[in-house]
Amino acid sequence: MSFPESWQWKVPLLLFGVGSVSVIGFAIALANGMADPPRASYLIWEDTPISWQKETNPKTNLEWYVSPHPLTTVNEFTLEVEGTIQADIPTLTAWGIWFQVADERWLVVGINGHQYVTVRYCESLTWDYRLLSCMPAFEPTQQIETVWKYFHLIKPVGQPNRIQLTRLALRSTTLTLRFGGEWMWDVALESDFRFEKWGIWVAQPQDSSQALVLWTTIRLWGNIEN
Number of folded domains in the chain? Predict the structure, then answer.
């Protein structure tokens, strides 16, 4: 096949451009955790929060549950929490996972019925469903703050969602957040981050006597060297 003279230099340039985009896309995917396993290999425990210690803050319609399972026994882990916002509950209802960082400081992961997600550092157990009183965490891969953001793999009200957090020994200063096995964010951890005390939480715009979230299962996975 022969090309007009004006195309002789355009075809190699076009092929180079396509190849460059592919390489750049692959590099971004690697940076976004594509090379990491979607979760640790071995199931350590499985539980539901039915028997967990429950606390409430009526001023903010906040409920939180304290896990009896410390995460200090594993260096590498994947924590999976699955829950469903009930179909007849306001869509601004939010739920997620909290970790106690210091005596009066918490890292909070939250999703809501509008399919948005955020990660925040809260100074006290007084946050509400909006988490606006808490500072966003930092995402080092994209160099952004983890404010509320829509994510297509977060399912709407009435459908189950699974929050997945992974910590690897080689990346011990970050937690990787995934939904549906797909990378969302890397969350930078502070130097004094602890894993002794953690749990789950739920809050909504108005007081309600009915269950807001149907908790399905909570799992901790670890790697064999733990």
Answer: 2
